[in-house]
Write a structure and sequence with these properties.
0% of the residues lie in helices and 0% in strands. The protein is largely without helices or strands.
Length: 48
């Protein structure tokens, strides 16, 4: 997904997955281009 924005956006949800099966999962965050990037963290929320 493209998260480029002319202004700062805080606390934005940029991805929400469908329900995942039981077992381990891997989260990969990649900055493919650009000069700056800020990553404040991620949150796992069990909703089912």
């Amino acid at each position: 997904m493209d998260t480029a924005s002319p202004k700062r956006v805080a606390d934005a949800v940029v991805y929400e997955s469908p329900r995942l099966g039981d077992g381990p999962h891997t989260v990969t965050i990649t900055k493919p281009s650009g000069t700056h990037a800020t990553f404040g963290g991620y949150e796992y929320v069990y909703r089912w």
